[in-house]
Amino acid sequence: MTYAHITGWGKCIPPARITNDDISQIVDTNDEWITSRTGIKARRVSHVTTAELATVAAKHALACAGVDAKDIDLVILATCTPSTMVANTASLVQKNIGAVGAAAMDTNAACSGFLYALQAATAQIQAGMIKKAVVIAAERMTWYINWERRDSAVLFGDGAGAVVLEAAESPAGLLATKAGCDSEDRDILHIRNCGSDLNKYQPIGPSDLLFEGREIFKRAVKGMSEACDDVLTQADLSLDEIDVLVPHQANLRIIQAIQQRLKVADEKVMVNIGEYGNTSAATIAIALCEAVEQGLIKPHANIMSAAFGAGLTWAASYIKWGKRVEPIAISDAVLPPCDKTGLELIAPAVAACEGTDRK
Predict the structure, then answer these.
(1) Which GO MF terms are attached to this record (predicted)?
(2) CA–CA dist 36, 247 (Å, integer)
């Protein structure tokens, strides 16, 4: 049987940072209110496009794997904030990294996007259709924010992460997965003024990212926990055999609730939401990279990951890490310099949102 090993990993974190104290200058809130409810202390805001974030993350993953981009067969970009809809953003990333001739596609499952994309690329490798793929998750969630709405203004950030997959004969990579969607309740998390359903000849105004926090909390904990149980059964694993839990970084309370339901010790859980906020599809990809960097993921580790997003999509995955936790090479890819603070970057959007809402 053919498996899809993760042989490279990389991330791209925008330099501009917005702290909770910065947010309090925009909406009626403070650091204690945000931290106690979400676990978030800061988030990043990008001065470049989603494609540029994805490109840098992909280049780091390719260097880490020691793989030439020309040998890549497939580029998948998980995002709900594409730079362009037509042509797809993955095609620009493919061009930027030099993956000549590789198939390129975007996939949108919101916060579950990285696990969905990982499953799709793994299946193609297992089927013998391709041998090498780069799976990227990149988001500019701050682009959607209505800065008059406290509930969403405090939550989201920008960033990207990527992995390289390569065909191999030994069991490793994504070994069990469960994905689904509870579409009947899709309206509890959505952006109502975006997409081709709208009249493009009428002014639309700032995006409204709307959600029902309590309902999302209940569904997220239940959906991700049950999906993890299903994956453990598929893989014939016990909870004690899980070395690392890498959950979607949406809210610290959700992470802790899933951790408690799965009975996973604190030292086995990857948490970085405090610095980055919710970067949607990119959260797991970035967290996976940092779990390796911090030594949390060791050779041959058993990793459980789970996500829940708009749609309402959900997924859980069991990943068996390979033997290597050190990069083969390090890319010099970086974002162009940013000469503005986080508050300066969002100032035009904040001005445009004035008077549209106040929560």
Answers:
(1) 3-oxoacyl-[acyl-carrier-protein] synthase activity; beta-ketoacyl-acyl-carrier-protein synthase III activity
(2) 19
